[in-house]
Amino acid sequence: MLITHDTRCALDTVVDLVNTAPEDDATPDALPDLAALEDFVRSHEVSDVGVLSELDLTAVRKVRGRFAAVFAAPDARAAAGLINDLIAAAGTTPRLTDHDGYDWHVHYFAPGASIADHLAADCGMALAFFVVAGEQERLRRCEAPDCRRAFVDLSRNRSRRYCDSRTCGNRLHVAAYRARRKEAAG
Q1: Is residue 67 within 8 Å of residue 151, measured between CB atoms?
Q2: Can you list the positions of beta strands (E) in 98-167?
Q3: What is the CA radius of gyration of the chain?
Q4: What is the spatial distance between Cα 36 and Cα 141, in angstroms, rounded to a whole number?
Q5: pTM for the whole thing?
Q6: Residue 36 carries which DSSP code?
Q7: Which of 10, 36, 108, 172 is most solvent-facing, going by the fewest CB within 10 Å?
Q8: What b/e readout covers 12-40, taking b as 16+ CB neighbours within 10 angstroms?
Q9: At what angle are helices 54-72 and 5-18 packed, to 10 degrees?
């Protein structure tokens, strides 16, 4: 599957956005305030964003929950329905642009769109490409029992199971190794 630069940026953004949500009641929200949203927008280099407000923060949190539902969708039909609703609500207006030193690419958000609509349109379309390509199963949650972070499996054979093999994957492999050694020692 060919993934363009702007699609990859949108995928990274949607994954990072979903992962700002608290995993449980004990985990804090990683978008607790307007300053955190401004940092998120800046660090992800989201273009064409005006002055943000508390209303934007509330709307982005709502969109974040809708994106989380896409990652939890049981099949492509369910994911497609969720993505269609997101994109339709955002009022998309696809247009070609070549800003900030990037070659021609497509923005899906309408000029002057709110940050929530901007994210819903661009990130929603990035997820839509996966459904269209028959690759919805690549939109995953970490299989580590104590982690439910979202990620996009871009491995060739669709075999990635953990959000980060160096943390979640390694931690589980070490635990399994220790359990085997303990059992063998007996």
Answers
A1: no
A2: 105-107, 139-141, 150-152
A3: 18
A4: 23
A5: 0.87
A6: H
A7: 36
A8: ebbbebbbbbeeeeeeeeebeeeeebbeb
A9: 100
